[in-house]
């Protein structure tokens, strides 16, 4: 009676095997979720910066800047939490993130606060857009 469901020889093996496979798959699912969370945080940080470029009031700039920083902090936390195979992704991401942040702080934000929206837009949609796509690729974002 080989392999018949419910038999002493074949019945309990399949459920046990499925349990083992599901337990082995869970850490990978967790890692994938971590990467997805980092990707979502990256998108949020980028969108908040673009909202700043489209705003026109000093009060709006200040409020949106706080949101940019909050989104960036969340992103850094998500990337910092990457482990296992995704740790290499975090290293590749940081190599791009640091120049991205530096450009934001030293060029885009000062331009916005001086009312130079066209300059800020050119940087954000130029070199920063390229870096954004590189960061997405580094994290494996869809």
Explain what the structure shows.
The chain is mainly α. It has a domain at 45-139. It is built from 5 helices and no strands. Helix 1 packs antiparallel against helix 4, helix 3 (87-113) packs antiparallel against helix 4 (117-125) and helix 4 runs parallel beside helix 5. The longest helix is centred in the first third of the chain and has 42 residues, at 13-54. The model is unreliable at 3-10 and 14-31 (pLDDT under 50).
Write the layout of secondary structure elements.
Elements: H1 13-54, H2 58-80, H3 87-113, H4 117-125, H5 127-139
Helix pairs in contact: 1-2, 1-4, 1-5, 2-3, 3-4, 3-5, 4-5
Summarize the structure.
The chain is an all-alpha fold. Helix content is 80%, strand content 0%. The protein starts with 12 loop residues before the first helix and ends with a helix.
């Amino acid at each position: 009676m080989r392999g018949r469901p419910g038999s002493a020889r074949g019945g309990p093996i399949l459920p046990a095997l499925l349990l083992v496979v599901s337990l082995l798959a869970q850490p990978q699912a967790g890692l994938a979720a971590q990467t997805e969370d980092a990707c979502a945080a990256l998108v949020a940080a980028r969108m908040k910066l673009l909202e700043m470029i489209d705003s026109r009031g000093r009060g709006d700039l200040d409020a949106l800047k706080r949101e940019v920083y909050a989104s960036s902090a969340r992103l850094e936390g998500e990337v910092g939490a990457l482990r296992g195979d995704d740790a290499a992704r975090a290293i590749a991401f940081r190599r791009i993130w640091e120049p991205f942040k530096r450009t934001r702080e030293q060029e885009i934000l000062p331009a916005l606060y001086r009312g130079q929206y066209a300059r800020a837009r050119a940087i954000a949609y130029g070199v920063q857009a390229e870096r954004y796509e590189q960061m997405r690729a580094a994290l494996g974002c869809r």
